[in-house]
Design brief:
Number of strands: 0
Strand content: under 5%
Shape: globular
Structural class: mainly alpha
Radius of gyration: 18 Å
Helix content: over 70%
Oligomer: single chain
Length: about 300
């Protein structure tokens, strides 16, 4: 069983891609699953993240506040602004523009810590940035979405805030408390969490793709192009910001991955709940979920091979 779990974790990007392709061409099985399950599934992933958090993970926030602050500022400026610029540059229709902006305004992705570890980056900084950006998300994600996408659609910032609290913050807090007060239980389940989270992410992507397969065929290439550019800009500019700030290589790697990898599952969930009148808004999050796992795995190989700018 451990061998299977390790295999799933190691090849998560491939698993997500295969699931997306299968559901794109054979959507029937997962299209029967109601979209209301997206929130509970995302909550379970967040709960697993909470189980792995320890008070020591927040130590970097107080021991190296400048690094974490710089990382979070980059997270909530580079990705939202890049999303808005891409939406304008490609003259995206309102629903696709909204979806791209939602992805850009979300906190760092849950897989970024694993990718940072594989890339030999600063894992403590990565975990600290993920934790802080997630805590800030209930305030900043709705606010930034309202600022960036308010010209496209009516944005219910308060409703989005409550959704993020219910789907992200509350499950993480419950997991964190269980980890603290039930350490024996946590010790038993934590080894299985990476494989569990990887499987849940793949199923989440599959459900979203299955429900939107026809729309993906009509506007898929444009969405994929914008999502790939968005992710590449995040990875590149994240590294560039860290370099301008004269950070060490391990910190630059962590910053690159944290800024480039978004919690696209949250973006898809918010699009499904709050923008049902714009069904295509869920597509960029689904595509990003597939692509950033692939690009993250590629960047881990590049960085771990000793990449250095000349």
């Amino acid at each position: 069983m451990k061998t299977i779990c390790d295999f799933i974790t190691r090849w998560m990007g491939v698993l997500v891609l295969l699931m997306a392709l299968f559901c794109l061409f054979v959507p029937a099985p997962l299209s029967k699953v109601d979209t209301w399950v997206i929130n509970p599934m995302l909550g379970l992933i967040m709960f697993g993240m909470g189980l792995t958090l320890r008070p020591t993970d927040f130590r970097v926030v107080f021991s190296r506040p400048k690094d974490v602050l710089a990382g979070c500022l980059a997270q909530f400026t580079v990705m939202p602004l890049t999303a808005w610029l891409l939406a304008k540059a490609f003259s995206l229709p309102a629903d696709l523009a909204l979806g791209v902006i939602l992805v850009g305004c979300c906190p760092g992705g849950t897989a970024s810590n694993v990718i940072t570890y594989l890339a030999k980056g600063d894992l403590a900084l990565s975990v600290g940035m993920t934790a802080v950006s997630t805590v800030l998300a209930p305030l900043l994600t709705p606010l930034l979405t309202w600022l960036m996408a308010g010209t496209y659609v009516n944005v219910d910032a308060w409703g989005m805030l409550l959704s993020i609290v219910y789907v992200v913050v509350a499950p993480i807090l419950v997991g964190f408390l269980i980890q603290h007060y039930l350490p024996s239980f946590t010790k038993r389940v934590v080894p299985w969490l990476p494989a569990f989270s990887s499987t849940m992410i793949a199923l989440l992507v599959g459900i979203i793709v299955a429900h939107n397969a026809p729309r993906l065929f009509t506007g898929g290439l444009l969405v994929v192009a914008v999502v790939v550019l968005h992710n590449i800009c995040g990875l590149t500019l994240g590294y560039g910001v860290a370099r301008v700030l004269h950070m060490q290589r391990a910190k630059r790697v962590a910053m690159s991955i944290e800024v480039g990898m978004q919690n696209s599952g949250l973006a898809t969930s918010l699009a499904t709940i709050h923008f049902a009148a714009f069904p295509m808004a869920a597509i960029p999050g689904a595509v990003f979920s597939v692509w950033h796992n692939i690009s993250g795995a590629l960047m881990a190989k590049i960085y771990s091979a000793g990449f250095e700018e000349k």
